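Allow me, if you will, to draw on your knowledge of protein folds for a short while. I have a record of one protein: its chain in single-letter code and its fold written as C-alpha cells. Could you please explain, in whatever detail you think fit, how the C-alpha cells follow from the sequence? The record follows directly beneath this note:
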Amino acid sequence: MNRSIARRLALMFALVALFVFTLVGTGLFLVLRTQLEHHLRESLDDRTQIARIIVYHAVTPEKWRMAREKLTDMTPHDGSTVYAVSSADPYFHYGTPVGGSVVTNWAGGYSRVMPSGGGQDMLTSTATLPAYGARPAVQLQVAVSYSPNVRTMRVFGLALAALSALGSLAVLLLSYSVTRLGLAPLTRLTRDASAVSPNNRSQRLNTASLPLELNDLANSFNGALERLDGAYGRLESFNADVAHELRTPVTILIGQTEVALTRNRSVDDLRHTLQSNLEEYERMRAIINDMLFLARADQGERATGLVDVSLAAEVAHTLEFLEIPLEEARVRAQLRGDAMARVNRSLFGRACTNLLMNAIQHCEPDAEISVTIVSDEDQVRVAVANPGEPISPDVLEHLFDRFYRAEVSRTNSRENHGLGLAIVKAIAEMHRGSVSAQSAHGINTFVFSVAALSPMEAGVPAARSNPSAAADGSGYSSLAKSKSA
C-alpha cells in the first residue's frame, strides 16, 4: 500500500509536537507542584507562628480559656486546618492531633501524614513550648490539608493533557496543509514527468523554480531523458540505416533473378548471375555479422583471449596483409613507435585494418599514410594519419557512429556500409580504450587506444593465444573478412 508523504510528515510532526508538549507539560507540572508545596509550607508556618504566640502567652487558666477560643475561631469548618495542643496537665489540652502513617518527613519538623481515618493527606508542623507561668510545657501541632493542592494539580493536569492533545491535533492538521503546499513542486515535477512520451521526447523537467532539494533530482532525471532520447534516436537511425543497407542487396538480388527468369539462359549466363548474387549474399552476411558484433559490444562484452604483444609487430603484419590495396592505390605507409599491450590479436588487427582501409580510400596517389604508436601511463594510442580534404568539426563528431558517411549521397554504398569506424570504436572500448579523430593542416588523423599494461599486470603472464578464442572474440576467423567492413 502506497503511503502519502504529506500524511507521514504530518504524523511525524504531530508526534514530535506531542512529545514536546508532554515534555514541557511535565516540567510545568513539576514546577507547579513544587511551588504549591512551598506555598503550603509558608501558610503552615504562618499559622504555626500565630498559634505559637497565642499558646505561649496563655500562662494562666483564664488566658488559656481565651487561647482555646482564639484557636477555635482560627479553625475552619471544612477541617482544612487543624490545631492541637497536648501536655501533661489535661486542662491545658486542645483538639486532637493528626494521627496516621507518615508518608514523608522533612527537616524543620514537617511531615506528610496520611490520616488513619481516610481523607486527604495533611502537612503537619510540631513545636514544643516550654513551661511558662502556670502553663506547663506543651506540644503544639498545626496541620493543613493537601486537598487544595491536589485539586489544583488535578485540574491543571487535565487541562494540560487536553491542551497537549488539542495542540497536537492542530499541528497535525496544519502540518498536513503546510506539507501539501511544500510538496507542490514535487507534484508539478510528477506532472511534468508524466508528460514525457515517445511522441514528445524533447520534453524536459522545468528546474527553474524548483527548490534545491529537488533540483538535483530533476537534473538527474533530465540527464536520463537526454541519454534515453539519444539512445532512442540512435536506435531509430540504426533501424533506418539497416533497412537501407539491406534493401540495396535484396533489390539487386531480386532484379537479377527476375532478369534471369525472363528467358532461357545459358549455363555461363546463369553462372554469372549466381556469382553476382553470391557477392550480394556475402555483403549481407558481412553487414549482419558486423551488427551482431556491435550488439555484443553494446552489452558490455570485453575482449577475451588477451596476449602480450608488440603493437608495432601487429601493425606491421596488418600492413603486410594490405600490401596489394596499398600498391593499387599507389600509397605508402610509414610505421613509427612501439609499445607492449595486452590485446586480442584478431580484434586489434581488425581495428588496424579498418583504419588503414579508411585512410587508403581517402588518399590521393603517391601520398603517405603515417601510423604512430605512442604509450603513456594509462593508454597506448595508435594514430593513423593521411593527407586529405579537411573534415568539418560537425562531421568529426559522428565519424565513429554506425552507418555514418561524410558523403550524404552514399555513392560508395556498394563498397562500404558505414560500420568500419564504429567497429574500431567498439574494439577500443572492449580493450578499455577510446577513439578520436582530428583534421588539421590537410592531415586527417584517426586514433584508437587500448589500456596500457599496469606494473602489476606486466609481471603476470597473459593467456596463450589460440585461434578459436580470437575468432570467437571478433566474430571472424581471419582478417580477410574484415576488409569488407
Notes: Residues 408-414, 463-485 have pLDDT under 50 and may be disordered. The chain has 13 helices and twelve strands. The two ends are 55 Å apart (CA to CA).
